[in-house]
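Incident review: delayed structure delivery

Summary: a single-chain prediction request sat in the queue longer than the usual turnaround. Root cause was a stuck worker, restarted by the on-call engineer. No data loss occurred. The affected request and its eventual output are reproduced below so the record is complete for anyone auditing the incident later.

Affected input:
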Amino acid sequence: MPRAAAALAAVLLLGAGLLAQAQARRATVVIEQGIRRAAVQAEIAETPEQREIGLMHRASLAEDAGMLFIYAEEQRLSFWMKNTRIPLSVAFITSGWVINEILDMESPRPGQEPPIHTSKAPARYALEMNQGWFRRKGIGPGAWVRLEGGGR
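Output delivered after worker restart:
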């Protein structure tokens, strides 16, 4: 009986995660640095539930797709790769929409707890992309970020 209850809880949690993904708002995020410009189709994680689930349980992520995490105020942000199978890079973004740091994050090995990746400086936003995406696009700290169709 306990095994059945655990299985039911796991199915309900996964279903809630899929529902949150389906309800997530989407936006085009534009990143500019010098002459380089890249556009990302991002899911917006703005509620505590959406931020907690993030990109968990995904088998893949399109090359120019990602997730933009939005917080109410600047703070040191922490991310981990619990139940995340896709290697990711995360860009920490200030309230002024400037990337101040980019970190690569690996999925944990079976039986290991995932490490926690914390921004060195306060950030209000974080953009998760496939690992190495920022490097491949020539984007680093100091790049400007904006939501297309809206202001900074």
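Verification: Strands lie at 25-33, 36-45, 65-75, 78-79, 88-93, 99-105, 117-118, 123-130, 144-147.
Action items: add queue-age alerting; document worker restart procedure.
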